[in-house]
Amino acid sequence: MQCPYCGNEMEKGYLQSRDGIGWGKKEVFVKALSELFAEKPLGKAVEAYNCRQCKKLLIEYD
Question: What is the CA 20 to chain-centroid distance, rounded?
Answer without folding.
Answer: 11
